[in-house]
Amino acid sequence: MSDPVGPDDESATIRRSDLRGGASRPAAPAQDPSTPVDGDESTVSRSSLKVRPAQQQPSRQRSSGATATGGSRWRSLLGLSRPEADTQDVRRNDVPGRGAGGAGGAGAAGRVGGVSNRSTRRRPELPTITLPRVQIPTAITQTGARILDLTGDRIRPLARASEPVWRPISRALAWVSPLGWTVFALGLVAWFLASRYEWTELAMIAVACLVLFLACVALAIGHAKVEIRTDVDPTRVTVGEPATGRIEVRNLSGRGMLPLLVELPVGRSAARFTLPSLGSGKSHEELFVVPTERRGVIQVGPATTVHGDPLGLVRRTMEWTEQSELFVHPLTTSLESLGAGLLRDLEGEVTPDLSMSDLAFHALREYQPGDDRRYIHWRSSAKHGRLLVRQFLDTRRSHLAVVVDTSPEVYTGEDAAVELAISCAASLAVRSILDEQDTTIVCNDQRISRSTAPLTLDTFARATVGPMDVFASTGDAAALAPDASIAILVTGSHRPFIQVQRALGQFEVEVIKVALVIDPDAQVGVRRAGGLTILTVRELADVRRVLFSGALA
Prior knowledge:
The protein is of the alpha+beta class. It is built from 15 helices and 24 strands. It has a 7-stranded mixed sheet, with helices on both faces. Strands 9-8-12-13 form a 4-stranded antiparallel sheet. Strands 5-7-10 form a 3-stranded antiparallel sheet, with no helix packed on it. Helix 11 runs antiparallel to helix 12. The longest helix has 24 residues, at 138-161. The protein is elongated.
């Protein structure tokens, strides 16, 4: 039997309703393809459906029907893969055509409207199309930047000149909270609708909102004549130590003062004090406790008075004090004298240790067997009739450089382990300063060199925990301490050894290079590898143990 539809026939049509319809939809009578049909009866040409005849599909000539994929053309154009389930099978008998004889005429209705005779599987989902990001031409962005620059240069002087006018207005508008603006807008809208439609209920709502708003504004107007003092004692504490603050408010006006709300920011929180009524010249004092569970710098203040209404529609604040800082230092442990890194240097510090080396002349003494004859002072010996030798004092140079690796990913335990590393470095720095040695500290974004113990601990308190370039930080320490005699890098167990070696290699050859590794799972000990002394500790108390063994000697 010949194919009723020829390969070159492009005028055959299929109804759009047939494409959307299911098996339960009744068959429609056949119509002439040349007759235009509106709505769901509109026609679609075979070329628009991209369905090739079976003769042009070699892989499907063996089957009884031609299979066409509805979305394959779009997927190929969009670069998407073709799912196996996303197919529509259209039998050859379902495609309308002009058949010969009675077969074509008798089966026309079945071919055109016989939706129930074809098997159709709906696609589970449509393909996702990702549109490319729209890029604005560079010429447009540059032109916009130039316009902003030009307008900014012209508007900025005008804004400065008119600042005495608009600055008070902007401050007054800032008194009103979002809730206050909502109530004010609701009153205006209700007033407009009530006047337009003569709605009594809306007029009552408008009056209530506007009166409430004006009353809240009246409560915020006024200036309290007070004197506020705040202080925290002590200003430097260690983690866990108590810190107490005090705030004192004195009424300086000639009349009594109504209850007043005072806010004092303490770190990330704020302390609120509701002061009682104060007579003229009277004062009131409140105490508060500052939490010191974590290392850092806690900002205290400024103390502000709050004027406004209980509903929070209008809020006016005035600052009375400056902002102060409370330093929470890291935990430290007491260490024995380092007794290492003492390099003899003619330009170093004089020590009380006597020496026969030619460094700093101290005095003459009698010759003893074994003394170097080069140090005999012959003129003095001839004068006193006995051999006298010169005696010297040692001059030594000792400079400790400590670099703390604050990258949490190199530690086991992350932030808690970083805090342990900072505590170990702080203990070493304090011991070095007590030994009257120069000390240089590099801890992430904080750097200090040749300072006192309190200021050095303040630097540790300001240091933040976060990723850092250990090589660059060690280079900064080497630049700050070119005369360093000991270089210590405090890091975690996940930091590769080659990185530690390269970082400490920036110091001079004669410098003692030490890597202090924080590892809670390793055994405490001392070992040497690659020209480095590696100290492994699990807790803060282990630092004393490894240093007592003479690891830095």
